[in-house]
Amino acid sequence: MQRHVLASALLGTMAIAGCSTVSQDEARPAPGAEAAAWPMPPSPPPQEAAEAKATAGRSAQASLHRRTQAASAPIALADVAAMGAYASSPALVQIPSPQPADTEKYAVREDNPVHRTSEQPVSTFSIDVDTGSYANVRRMLQEGTRPPVDAVRAEEMINYFRYGHAGPDSLDVPFRVTTELAPAPWNGKRQLLMIGIKGYDVPKATLPPANLVLLIDTSGSMNTPDKLPLLKQSMKQLVNQLRPQDHVSIVVYAGSAGLVLAPTSGDRGGEILAALERLEAGGSTNGGDGIRLAYAMAKQGYVQGGVNRVILATDGDFNVGTVNQGALETLVADQRKAGIALTTLGFGRGNYNDALAEQLADVGDGNHAYIDSLSEARKVLVQEMGSTLLTIARDVKIQVEFNPALVAEYRLVGYENRVLRNEDFANDKVDAGDIGAGHEVTALYEITPVGSGAEQLPVLRYGAASGPAGARPSGTRAEEVAHLRLRYKRPGEDGSRLITTPIARSSLRTTPSDTLRFAATVAAYADALRGGTRIGGWSWDEILRNARGVQDGNPQRAEFVGLVETAQALVDADRREAVVAD
Questions:
Q1: Following DSSP, what letter does each residue of 219-238 receive, concatenated?
Q2: Domain VWFA: where (predicted)?
Q3: How many CB atoms lie within 10 A of CB 169?
Q4: Which helix H or strand E contains 428, and what residues bound it?
Q5: Is 113 left (phi over 0), alpha (psi -120 to 50) or beta?
Q6: pTM of the predicted structure, to 2 decimals
């Protein structure tokens, strides 16, 4: 009986789809009506009907396969009807749902190598305050998907969390540098050097006036709940923080760019929210024109001594106009020199261009975050609004020189795309990362002490590792594990300033603090997601045990514990499948 009703309904659907004079709404039965009451075509002779059914089914299967492979063309109603008629035979066929192709883009990166101190004692890199990798990986794990290796960036995982680094007393020196040296939790023969930077925390009420341009992607690819709808709700949280002295413009781009809202003061929140609410998705993605118009509006409303920033919210799927990433980077870099920064907010899945969003923020003197929920939007646009908007130190570079008499090897954890040439440290024309008000930056070095027996590089045949005797430090310097140098520019200045901090051997702790242990656990988690080749001695069970031991009642750390559990389960499942396949 059920099979008869299904066949009748599907045949009726075929009749409706084939009729050009009757709309689907006109042909649809009233709610609750029986499928058998739908209009039915005349029945052909039994043998002809059977042959027609089989032919239609095979044709529909072939059509459905072609459409599924294309991943972009919709399945016609007639295909579904014919497939259903074929499926009503005893050999029931399940209709697969076509899934869009996954075209997410991530910049390829290789883990930093281990360096022999006698050969390369100096390490130089730009700071990074981005957190997009952590939230994006969280999204994938919560969906039950193991993230691609290049989506995992250790420094963004580490810097997603606050570690309570001590801050400066005033803006005279806009941040403070602290260090901790302790045995590595995963290998007691090695050590971890943690470098912490904390920016001066400017109260929201005293932030200078802001000239913000919201550059919003309204292309067709944004037409899913986790994209434009979430984007609009996220921006509403930012709008609710605005003050009368702040001004906001809204620029959108799809096939072409357009101005939705001219500069509007923050006390006219109703108008700003109404403009956001009217946005709809559709069309192709001309991001290049959108960026140009956004910068034009930022220049028009430029506030001398204030916050001048474009906030680009997109899935990054630029497909018309200026689509070359290099050209876009040049455009953004030119505007950076004019005092207009760029923050990027990533949204969505499936076609998310992480590589573009991260790099544009990097060259635009801004930061990159990924918004996967309203709570993440609140973290980025409300709780951390000051650090997101107000830059207190520009072009911040770190350089560490290790003492070859005490340090045999070292490795920088993360920051692979922030590594600089040593000569770039004192070159004020070389761009580097910026620190916002209240920002924290954390970096880790894994160090192998001389004579520890934990060296990872092979012994050199001709003993060059020892170096010339006259090159070894003496006196006080002989007791220094490393010398930390940091350069930065104050906003509006072209010349950099230098901060130096020696790291004495006597500062070595017997056990790492909970702060260092948690940072190390996050680093190990990132490494395990990338394949587990760099953090020796810790399994997933040990990462999880340490995560639980230092969560300290913090909601974000408690969430992190859950992500470690989820990641471990996914990795274990992959291993079991690999064993079965073998």
A1: SGGG-STTTHHHHHHHHHHH
A2: 211-389
A3: 9
A4: none
A5: beta
A6: 0.80
CA distance 125 to 433: 9
CA distance 373 to 348: 10
SS3 category, 157: helix
Q: How far is CA 336 from CA 192, 311, 329, in A?
A: 35, 13, 10
Residue with the two structure tokens 């996914």: 570
Q: Give the integer Cα–Cα distance in Å for 252 and 218.
A: 6
Which value, in Å, is the radius of gyration of the alpha carbons in the chain? 29
Contacts of 275 (CB under 8 A, 6+ apart): 250, 260, 261
- Reported for 70-77, long-range contacts at CB under 8 A and 24+ positions apart, including other chains, are 71/98, 71/99, 71/100, 71/101, 72/100, 72/101, 76/17, 77/13, 77/16, 77/17
- Residue 470 structure tokens: 């006259």
Helix (H, G, I), strand (E, B) or coil at 187: strand
Number of H helices, E strands in the chain: 16, 16
Whole-angstrom distance, CA of residue 231 vs CA of residue 475 = 59
pLDDT tens, per residue, the chain with 582 residues = 444 444 444 344 433 344 333 333 333 433 333 333 333 334 444 444 444 444 444 443 333 333 333 333 332 323 323 333 333 333 333 334 344 567 899 999 999 999 999 999 999 999 999 999 999 999 999 999 999 999 999 999 999 999 999 999 988 899 999 999 999 999 999 999 999 999 999 888 889 999 999 999 998 889 999 999 999 999 999 999 999 999 999 999 886 679 999 999 999 999 999 999 999 988 766 667 888 899 999 999 999 999 999 999 998 766 545 556 788 888 888 898 889 999 999 999 998 999 989 999 999 989 999 999 999 999 999 999 888 889 999 999 999 999 999 999 999 999 999 999 999 999 999 999 999 999 999 999 999 999 999 999 998 888 754 444 445 676 667 899 999 999 999 988 999 999 999 999 999 999 999 999 999 999 999 999 999 899 877 999 999 999 999 988 889 999 999 999 999 999 999 888 877 776
CA atoms of 225 and 248, how far apart (whole Å):
25
Q: Which two tokens stand for residue 337?
A: 């020199």
Place of tokens 């001709």: 462
* 320 SS3 class: coil
Residue 204 β-bridge partners: none
Residues in the chain: 582
CA distance 169 to 2: 77
Q: Residue 155 in contact with residue 128, Cβ under 8 Å?
A: yes
DSSP code string of 110-145:
-PPPPEETTT--EEEEE-----HHHHHHHHHHHTT-
CA nearest to 434, candidates 364, 510, 374: 364
Q: Of 574, 565, 463, 530, which is closest to residue 150 (Cα–Cα)?
A: 530
| C-alpha to C-alpha distance for 460 and 116, rounded to whole angstroms | 10
